[in-house]
Model the fold of this input.
Amino acid sequence: MSLLVRVPASTANLGPGFDALGMALGLYDTVEVAVTGGATKVEVTGEGADAVPTDESHLVVRALRTAADALGLELPGVALSCHNEIPHARGLGSSAAAVVAGVAAAYGLAGKALDDDALQLAAEFEGHADNAAASLYGGLVLAWSEGPRYRAVRLEPHPAVTPVVLVPDVRSATSVTRGLLPDNIPHKDAAFVAGRCALAVHALTTRPDLLLPATEDRLHQDYRERAWPDTMRMVRELRANGVPATVSGAGPTVLTLPPDGALPAGVDTAGFTVRVLPVARTGVIIEANGTNSR
Done:
């Protein structure tokens, strides 16, 4: 049996929504999975082709096997053909997309529709639910946890929300940037971020004219500036020009949400590749035997 899995990139935090808000972006990794009787084989083209393993330690394979075990699915060898469009270590959810691809593949091979347990499997494996939920469900997601259980709801972004990302050549590691965060923040900053996060949900779904104040953050971006100073310089310059701009996930990509889908003239984007990426309204897609499932 073989199937094809197509999973979108994602951006997380969206300014104040640290570990809570995520949004799927129209940039995709595609994985073809076939069950074989021999050793596991992985072929990779596109982003990260020269850097990722091609055996059982490949992230998609590990997520696939974890989900297969949870579903009671026995898998001998598997053959994977991966084509990656999502840049690695840039804050665009490449790891979450790989995990979601593996989980979705296990569901597809088991003949089972994706359910809430798919999010649980992906979020447990990945460590948090914002990117994983965005890649699973598409659109805008609000994620949280209740004890060990991960939860998320999908919201429909306003049609005028047009993401434009600025992707630098440098990379960033979530493990490093999280280590720069303080254990405590001032109460006034916590109150500020709570209000802005609520406003962000409203702005992203109903009032995009409020995106500039709605994407302001005091919880994480400034504390992690030394990990990506050029990113924060760009965020501040864009915001000074009236463009809603934030750090995408763990960085160093800059996420912008300009009202007309274009950056203002005169902004120096040297060192960044500018890409217009539509919101991916649909999450991961599984194609098996000519049929689609989600």
Summary: The first strand starts at residue 2 and ends at 13. The radius of gyration is 19 Å. The chain has two domains: 2-156+279-293, 164-276.
